[in-house]
Amino acid sequence: MARFGYTLMTEQTGPKELVRDAISAEQRGFDFEVCSDHFSPWLASQGHAPNAWAVLGAVAHATERVDLYSYVTCPTMRYHPAIVAQQAATVQILADGRFTLGLGSGENLNEHVVGQGWPTVERRQDMLREAIKIIRELFGGELVDWRGDYFQVDSARLWDVPDVPPGIGVAMAGPRGVEKFGKLADHLIAVEPDQELVDDWRTARQSAGWPGVGRVVGQLPVCWDPDRDKAIARAHDQFRWFAGGWTVNADLPTPAGFAGATQFVRPDDVAESIPCGPDLDAIVEAAKSYWEAGFTDIALIQIGGESQEQFLKEAAEPLLDALRSAAG
In terms of residue numbers, what domain contains 67? Predict the structure, then answer.
C-alpha cells in the first residue's frame, strides 16, 4: 500500500511554524514528512527559506512516529559531503532511526550563493556520485581520508553515529540518471510518475545486489481551499514556477529570474496542472498516477504557508482516508 506524506516547504513557511505544522501533520495521520532544503524561495511571494537542517533537528525531536526525509539536499557545493554526513547522522539519532537522507544534484538558485559558479549537469552529477560515496564511508564511523576528482577529506570521523545509518534516496530522471545513480541509491526520488524510470531503477538495484525493493518517493503539489478561485490565485502567485519544468528550473539563479521566466503563465495554466479548491477527489485522481507507476511514498505539498493550519484541520484527515481507500 502507498504511504502518504506531508511537505515541510521551507520556501513558504518560517521555522517555528514548520515545526508546528510537522506536529499537526503527524497527529492528522500522515505517514512521513519531507523537508525541502533551499537558500532562497523560488518566488519572492513565498517569502521564506530557513535552514532545513535546523528545522529537521527540531522536527525530529518534536515528533514520534512519522518518517522524515531531506527532500532534497545537494551535498556538493553549499554543503561539503562530510558536513552532510554529520548532519544526517545527527538527525537520524534525534529521530530514533526515522530519517532518510534525500540527495540531488542541486539547483542554481541555492548553490550559486557560495560563489563557486554553476557547473554543467554532467559535472554536477559526477560530483554527486563522489559525494554519495564519501557520505557512505563516513556513516561507517571510521577515520576517512579521501582524494577524489572533486572533493578532499582529511582525517574525518563522525563521533556520533546512529545504530542504523540513514538510508540514502537519490533524485534521478531518465536512463542517464539511473545509469549514474541506480546502483548508489537505497531509494528513488522522482519528480514525475514515470513507470519506466521506476522499473529501470529496480532492475539496477537488483543487478547491484541491493536487499529489498527500496522506496520510490514522489511529490504532488495541491492547493486545497474551500474557495476554488482563491486557491487558483494563491497557486498562481506562489507556485507558477512549477510550469518551467526541472530542466529549466535547475538553472535559474534568483527569485527575480523565476518571476521573469513565468510572467506569462496564466492562472488557468496553473489550475490545469495543480488540483485547486475543495474537491478532494481531484487530488486523489492526481495522486493515482503515482501509485500506478509504482511509487510507494507520495508527499503532498499544500501551497501557501498561511493555508497550512486550515488544510491540516479541515482537509487532511478526510483526504488521507480518500487516498488510502483509492490506493487499496
Answer: 3-227+278-327
